[in-house]
Amino acid sequence: MKKYLFLFAASIMILSCLLGKTLVTASGEERESGYDRYYTNIEIRPGDSLWSIAERYRANSGMEVRQYISELKEINGLVSDSIEAGDSLTVVYYARQPGMIPSEQ
């Protein structure tokens, strides 16, 4: 009985090591691009739309415009595509350092 318990415990440890290595490798591959995720608040200007904001800030994200818009809506709790000048919007951007917003580079 002890032999089987030992084999079971050893198997679990080996599987954990293999799975852990796979997860570490996967997260390392994701960050190879050198871009980190940051957030900032912007004031919506006259003529802005979610589409134009997505075009400005989605650089280095690997997302299509529609995917980025969906993320913007989720982050800001928006249920429609309607935004108004003067309102504030939280946007996500991808850069090597904070403050290096793609639209301002």
Automatic annotation (TrEMBL):
A Pfam entry, by short name: LysM
Matching SUPFAM superfamilies: LysM domain (SSF54106)
Signal peptide coordinates: 1-26
InterPro entries noted in UniProt: LysM, LysM_dom_sf
Record flagged with keyword Cytoplasm: no
PROSITE patterns: LYSM (PS51782), PROKAR_LIPOPROTEIN (PS51257)
Alphabetical UniProt keywords: Signal
Keyword Kinase: no
Domain LysM: 40-91
Name of this chain's protein: LysM peptidoglycan-binding domain-containing protein
UniProt organism field: Enterocloster hominis (ex Liu et al. 2021)
